[in-house]
Design goal:
The structure is a single chain. The mean pLDDT is 80. The protein is mainly alpha-helical. It has 1 helix and no strands.
Length: 74
């Protein structure tokens, strides 16, 4: 008898979950995007080249550090 009640309870819970998801899908409002501004990069951006050690006169700089690799990956 208790087994029947447990099965009924499980079945009802599944059915309730299914109904909740279907109601949530039906009640969901689709909000249109009203942002009609021009997308992309801002107009004031320009390409700025990276400075290298040769760009700075009379200066000897250390070489760029290499990224350390983890021991386990390689």
């Amino acid at each position: 008898m208790t087994e029947d009640l447990q099965q009924k309870e499980r079945r009802l819970r599944k059915e309730l979950a299914r109904i909740k998801t279907s109601n949530a899908n039906n009640d969901r409002k689709i909000v249109p995007n009203r942002d009609y501004s021009v997308g992309g990069l801002p107009p004031d951006t320009t390409h700025k080249a990276k400075r290298s050690s040769a760009d700075t006169p009379d200066v000897i700089q250390l070489p760029a550090k290499k990224r350390k690799r983890t021991e386990n990956k390689w």
